[in-house]
Amino acid sequence: MIKKSLKSAMGISMGITVGGCIFPRLFLNNLYNDTWPSIWKQAILYFIVGYIAAFLVYLIINWIKSLFT
Q1: Exposed/middle/buried for 54, CB within 10 Å: 0-12, 13-18, 19+?
Q2: So where are the chain's domains?
Q3: Do residues 42 and 25 lie in contact, with contact meaning Cβ atoms separated by under 8 Å?
Q4: Secondary structure element (H or E) that encloses residue 60, with its range
Q5: CB-count burial class (<10 Å; 0-12, 13-18, 19+) for 21
Q6: pLDDT for 37-59, tens place per residue?
Q7: Is the pTM here over 0.70, yes or no?
Q8: Nearest to 14 by CA among 37, 39, 43
Q9: Do residues 47 and 26 make contact, with C-beta atoms less than 8 angstroms apart?
């Protein structure tokens, strides 16, 4: 159950990082001034937070599935 949740969360966290950090910083760079962190710091932060959140959601979903089977 934990391995499945860890694997599933990887793709979600990559999507969150690309869609929430990389694309906006590349395509809308006039909105980001010098007060924002570097793109690498922001991407790592998005990836870690997204991975933890997705892992917990998948873990809860798999736990609920295991209760009813």
Answers
A1: buried
A2: 2-68
A3: yes
A4: helix 39-68
A5: buried
A6: 888 999 999 999 999 999 999 99
A7: yes
A8: 43
A9: no
